[in-house]
Design brief:
Length: 402
Amino acid sequence: MPRDADAAGSGPPVVVLGAGYAGLRTAQECDRRLRGRVPILLVDRHPVHILRTELYEVGRIARAKGTSAPWAIPLDEFLRRTSIGFRQGTVTEIDLEHQRVYLDGEPLTYAQLTIALGSVAAYYHVPGAAEHTHSVYRFTGAQRLGAELLAIARRSVDLPGERRPRVVVVGGGSTGTELAAEIAGTDWGALAGGIAARPMEVVLVTGALPFLAGLPAELIDRSRRLLQAAGVHLLYGTNVARVEPGRLHLDDGSILTAEAIVWCAGLEAPPVVARLPVPHGRGGRLRVAPTLELPGRPGVFAAGDVIELTDPTTGVPVPATAQAALAGARVAGGNLAARRLGQPLREFRYRERGVILALGPSEGAAAIRSLTLWGAPVRLLKRAVERKYAGAVAQGEESRVL
């Protein structure tokens, strides 16, 4: 298990809340700059770093039979090469006025702070959505979905006539797109023990927003073709009105029945972040200055999915992606140390390196610089990038998602 906090120095530590892509990189960069002169404490409710960008791979997760090893790196593998301390606990309150955070109700005083608590599924007040859908934004949710899909495959042999089990995925962003392709392309019968399971009918409800909004047009077109080739049915232009067990009501009055419904329609800030008395953006995200510092709160930074920031040079919002989280966290960690040392702060300028979408176990599409690529080599490229990142984190090294 990772060691407890105050191993380096004395006095209130520099605290980083969250050990995801943004939090882990922030702590790493701050430690590199401070070189053990100031105690740094990383806080998370789990003692592992979850590879969240890979949780759409529910087929592989189901095949793992409950083990989290491929998707969860123990934090002690990372922290033992640093002077960063760790404390496990759930953040229940952040008191900016008195420089305290509460972990399971217990107070912890900080000197400087970075909030990198990630995001949670946004249900937009759709009745029944939270209660009657699956989610893959957390590892436990991906495990539950994988187990449910295996059970559906086993039951499919008893369906009447030629009916196929239907899975509906809600959300036309990258997560919903990758998940729909993964479910359609997985041999669930083989995973269920070699039974003659019927292929699953996968419906992707993209909603009223454009499919894969914000991505290059050629990448969108290629992704659409690959999804259709995999047997995914795309349903455009209508939102979900309410969800019942096994039934999805759309706002055009139509109803979709399904064996499983998965919600990938968007993200928002966790409640503990959304209720902070500071400026917020969409979904409760924290509005930050270009230095990633909270306005009017010197020494308090935020990074990753939890922030809302428009790049002043491009006018484009920084996306809630792992690539952006890692890039921003490097600035947040450096500025966290700079505040402690009385040095100037640096502004964050995000530059997209490219986008890679996995569209099933053996297909993919990518936009890298001015090129659009697709096919099996792209899928292999994405897996190589994911493995490189996982290996670098485990070694405590500089790493990139792309």
